[in-house]
Specification:
10 helices; alpha/beta; 7 strands
């Protein structure tokens, strides 16, 4: 008789399987009882977390946002997670909000600064269809956003440990979508300062549209300062036309969009928790870290 089919081993396997089954049943029961109050009434579950993506014609964008959504679900399985797009992709945000049926929700914009979408489009959608929903601050600026930017740069080939001479010749262009809103530019500049402090090299914010400097202009500005080893840091949540355009202009390396990085998932949950902890009578502090 071999060790694999010894009666004691088979018994142990059965016991392990039974223990696993009992643990699974107990966990499910505990989750269900957690929604029941002492008087037997059903406690309301946590508000839904609605990810608000911009939308893109690039099919990689939807795939990336769904991957981020799944990571968030794994981190916080008790929270219902939904997705709504501002444009170009389904489900569109109004349809997602209508599907909530009036239940409480927190909308977390997958946007990296304040701007028209955060200030106007998303609040107007909430006012029209979801009276019990609240809007969180955008994802940037925040240290967890910088964590994600750094990780993507390192993946692209950026070296944290290098010589002082190499550091003096290096720089980064932080490439963002761009907006005519002054607060959006201020947020991107703050993210650039945080990234510069983290990596110890100059970081110049630049934009794909609607704002200046452009990425080529920012590259020239760094080169004029003697910085010839220049990386482009992609400050985009997901792949798309602007992200691709900015990456193609990089003279050296360009990082991938932020995507479903663990730090970004934790940042989404931080914005969700931050909003729930803020009294509803208080005005949201969109720049809070």
């Amino acid at each position: 008789m071999t060790a694999s089919n010894h009666p004691r081993d088979e018994s142990r396997i059965r016991l392990d399987s039974t223990a696993h089954l009992m643990h699974s049943i107990s966990s499910q029961l505990a989750r269900r009882l957690g929604h029941i109050a002492l008087d037997g009434s059903r406690r309301p579950g946590p508000p839904a977390l609605v990810l608000v993506a911009h939308g893109s014609r690039d099919p990689r964008a939807l795939h990336t946002v769904r991957a981020l959504m799944e990571r968030i679900r794994r981190l916080r399985p008790a929270v219902p997670v939904r997705l709504g797009h501002i444009e170009l992709n389904e489900p569109l945000l109004p349809d997602t909000l209508a599907g909530l049926g009036g239940a409480p929700a927190v909308l977390v914009p997958l946007l990296l600064s304040r701007g028209h979408h955060v200030k106007r489009d998303i609040p107007e959608a909430v006012a029209a269809a979801a009276p019990h929903a609240r809007v969180a601050a955008p994802l940037g600026p925040h240290p967890l956003l910088v964590d994600t930017l750094c990780a993507r740069l390192i993946e692209a080939g950026w070296r944290i440990r290098t010589t002082e001479a190499a550091r003096r010749g290096s720089g980064i262009v932080l490439a963002a979508a761009g907006s005519r809103d002054a607060d959006s530019a201020a947020d991107t500049r703050r993210t650039a300062r945080l990234l510069a402090d983290r990596l110890g090299v100059p970081v110049v914010p630049a934009y794909a549209s609607a704002a200046t400097p452009t990425v080529p202009a920012a590259l020239r500005a760094l080169a004029d300062r003697g910085r010839h080893r220049i990386a482009v840091a992609s400050c985009f949540t997901a792949p798309g036309r602007f992200a691709t355009q900015c990456a193609e202009q990089a003279p050296w390396i360009a990082s991938a969009p932020l995507g479903a990085h663990p730090a970004l998932a934790h940042l989404v949950l931080h914005r969700y928790d931050q909003t729930l902890a803020t009294p509803t009578s208080a005005a949201p502090e969109l720049t809070s870290a």
